[in-house]
From TrEMBL:
InterPro entries: Nitroreductase, Nitroreductase-like, Nitroreductase/BluB. GO terms for molecular function: oxidoreductase activity. This is Nitroreductase. Coiled coil: none annotated. The lineage of its organism: Bacteria, Bacillati, Bacillota, Tissierellia, Tissierellales. Residues 7-188 form the Nitroreductase domain. It comes from Thermohalobacter berrensis.
Length: 212
């Protein structure tokens, strides 16, 4: 459907042209993120925009250093190789003109305090926490950002791989907001034409169940 073309414009882009992204465009893209739904309308998100190329490169080096530190602690060589081989995907943001970091803030899951007060079993509490609505809010905001960016001619890539270095990246940037932590990030820039493609999707019949 033509009305949904804006959805199909989004691709996971890992190569970008050496072209600036105007701040006005960035603000419009972030604004789209803030219009995502959030439980209790808490909007428990915060967006950190990095345009400084040196800082973006340093963030990539932080991920590389953390990857090496963790890998060197592994005794199993196969596990070590499996972990390090994805490093190139964890640092694709280094060539983008912009990096957007999405921080997640506190979110009280509905009913959790009641379960704790009545002494509910740990299994029941764990089941309630499984949907993690606080992170669902963040995911909705990031998806809005990706769709808005694509509709404006930019490329993005949803990234959670580098989060094992999230604490170090946050400290490097000097960002502080009580209760907030780095949950995901995306590079942002004008994509190389070769990047405008997506892998095949599972058939609808495989991922949809209709109950009448």
């Amino acid at each position: 459907m033509k009305e949904l073309d804006f959805i199909y414009k989004r691709h996971s882009v890992r190569k970008f042209k050496d072209q600036d992204v105007p701040m006005d465009d960035i603000k419009e893209i972030i604004k789209a993120g803030t219009y995502a739904p959030s439980g209790k309308n808490l909007q428990n998100w915060h967006f950190v925009v990095v345009k400084n190329k040196d800082k973006i490169e340093e963030m990539a080096k932080i991920v590389e250093k953390k990857n090496a530190e963790l890998a060197n602690k592994l005794g199993d060589e196969d596990k070590k190789k499996a972990f390090t081989k994805y490093l190139k995907y964890h640092t694709v943001f280094r060539k983008a003109p912009v990096a957007i970091l999405v921080f997640a803030g506190p979110y009280p899951s509905t009913g959790i305090e009641i379960l704790r007060e009545i002494g509910a079993p740990k299994e029941e509490i764990r089941e309630l926490l499984r949907p993690n609505p606080g992170i669902q809010n963040i995911a909705a905001a990031l998806e809005n950002i990706l769709l808005a960016a694509a509709n404006m001619g930019y490329g993005t890539c949803w990234m959670t791989g580098p989060m094992y270095a999230g604490k170090e990246i946050t400290e490097f940037l000097g960002f502080e907001k009580e209760g907030y932590y780095l949950a995901a990030m995306t590079p942002l820039g004008v994509p190389e034409e070769s990047e405008l493609k997506s892998p095949p999707r599972k058939p609808l019949e495989e991922v949809m169940t209709i109950i009448e």
